[in-house]
Amino acid sequence: MRPRRSRLFVLGLMKFLALVTVAGGVGVALGMVLTQVSDDKQPAGSVGAATAAPPATAAAPGATTPTTPATTTITTTPTATPDPLDQVRLSVLDARLFTDDTPSGAREQRARVTVRIRAENAGGESVTLARPMLRVGNVRIPTDPDADALPGAQFDPLQPAVPQTVTLRFSLAGEATPKVVRDRRARVLIAGRSLAMRVKVRAPTG
């Protein structure tokens, strides 16, 4: 009985081993088939996972990144040219009024005013002065044109650092004469300025 059981046991073991062997071969074959099918479905050119993007290139040590220079707009203000008249220095040395005692002079209240004045050009170029005027209240009186021919009656063009002294002559009439006699004041308009001055009243002209 024992030999028979032993044979049956050996036969059963051999069948089991054969079955395991066959099952293993079938599994290997099945795995190969599945692998082939998977490779056929994969898109051409793709291998495994997606290829990662190349890393950014680092700047070399000590290298500087070029920058666009900023544009600066500079606005310049034109320099104003100085007025040559601002360089003229004026001084009133003397001012006098002489009344006219002739019948016509007394009737018309005529008088003559003389103003001795000094001017100096402190600039660097010649300056020509406009005809001066005498101001009495709201009345403006130009220099007497009949006196223009007299020496030193008008300013010549003022040269730099060359002072001039002249005697300006004005002919008054009407209300201007008694106003100056009463106030003993008047103004001379010259070189763009108005200079106040005290006027001395003198004896009538003969």
What is the CATH domain class of the domain at 85-205? Mainly Beta
Tell me about the biggest sheet?
4 strands, mixed
Radius of gyration: 61 Å
What's the order of the H and E elements? Answer: HEHEEEEHEEE
CATH topology of the domain at 85-205: Immunoglobulin-like
Q: Note the beta-strand portion.
A: 25-35%
pLDDT averaged over residues = 80
Helix/strand-derived category reads alpha+beta
Individual helix count = 3
* Global outline: rod-shaped
Physical arrangement of strands within the biggest beta sheet: 5-2-1-8
The level of helicity is 25-40%
User: How many angstroms separate the termini?
Assistant: 193 Å
- Low-confidence segments: 44-50
CATH architecture of the domain at 85-205: Sandwich
Assembly state:
single chain
Report a brief summary of the structure.
This protein is α+β, with helices and mostly antiparallel strands. It is built from 3 helices and 8 strands.
How are the secondary structure elements laid out?
Blueprint: H1 2-41, E1 88-100, H2 103-108, E2 111-121, E3 133-136, E4 139-142, E5 164-172, H3 176-183, E6 185-190, E7 193-198, E8 200-205
Parallel strand pairs: 1-8
Antiparallel strand pairs: 1-2, 2-5, 3-4, 3-6, 6-7
Describe this protein's structure.
This protein has 206 residues and is of the alpha+beta class. It has a domain at 85-205: Sandwich (Immunoglobulin-like), CATH 2.60.40.4170. It is 26% helix and 29% strand. The protein contains 3 helices and 8 strands; from the N terminus they run H-E-H-E-E-E-E-H-E-E-E. The strands form 2 sheets. Strands 5-2-1-8 form a 4-stranded mixed β-sheet. The chain has a 4-stranded antiparallel β-sheet with strand order 4-3-6-7. Strand 3 and strand 4 (139-142) form a beta hairpin. The longest helix has 40 residues, at 2-41. The chain is rod-shaped and about 190 Å long. It starts with a helix and ends with a strand. 16% of the residues are buried. Residues 44-50 have low confidence and may be disordered.
